[in-house]
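Continued from yesterday's entry.
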Amino acid sequence: MLKLDDRDIEILRVLADNGRITKAQLAERVGLSASPCWERLRRLEEEGIIEGYKATINLRKLGPNVTVFVVAELNDHTPASFQAFEASMQRFDEVTACWALGGGLDYLMQVVTTDIDAYQRLMDAMLEARIGLARYFTYIVTKPVKPFTLPPLRLIHGRDGAE
């Protein structure tokens, strides 16, 4: 694990808030001169801590859509079944995120479609494709309450100020 200090964590926080910030503005915001800031940024990218830069898109502005969370259980629990299911998720563009779970059920999927009918057609296609899906539970998002935000980096990295 790469050792991060408070400045590294601040660089990550600033970039998570605004990935389009210029390198000069980033250096100013984190209290470094340009060259040391850029070197830290390069190191964070090379180490894979920064995986990429993305835009946040307001789907409501693009047209009708529905977000659904799906909890899925597989037919069987062999390594091959998990691998096959996970590989199949890459084929479904409507599945915008998928997480393997520990506990009673196997996966949590985030699905975005134009409407509930399109969602049901997707699930029917998954069942017909025989990807190992035994059953699933649907949870329709009625409104966003808290958007995706950066996790508490200081706590995750063990830098909660209790040093």
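--- second protein ---
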Amino acid sequence: MPECKEEFIQIFQENITRPGADALLDYLEHKSDFFTAPASTKFHGAYPGGLCEHSVNVYDCLRDYLERPRVAELYGLEGYSAETVAIVALLHDLCKVNCYKAGTRNVKNEQTGQWEKVPTFFYDDPLPYGHGEKSVYIISGFLRLTREEAMAIRWHMGFSGGEDKNLVGRALERYPLAFALSVADMEATYFLEGGD
């Protein structure tokens, strides 16, 4: 999906300018599989380039969400910079880089009844540091995040993660950008990408 990579890079370079941004983009392009990795093993974006496509989709959904006047007014979401929006949306799933390995699995062909090998991905995390917190950790090795950005990325899974629901609720209430990012992530996953 070369066009997705080009779109990601264009959004990144136009919006993310703080110190370390160039090194982070270089890492994504040359030292990770970000642009060729899937977003999952069998759900949304389970194909080469799915992670990049998902990240761009989340960016589009977050921008749309933040531009809704009533939402911005009610939840204090006004005034986020284009840089903040690009950082949290494009980079929220960096925890998935270098974790997917291509392989095959056996699937029974419904028409013939025969077992066939089909391509698939297996998840093998070399740095099992959690989900959102791992993304924050990777990004922080290149550029400094604001507290609101770090919390948004950390809690982007919202209530679909495995954390204590009271803790999730307090985080989303205290950091409105985290709630907005979780909504954008869910919208991209389930509506745009048809994930399960």
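The chain has one domain: 2-192. The radius of gyration is 17 Å. Will compare against the first tomorrow.
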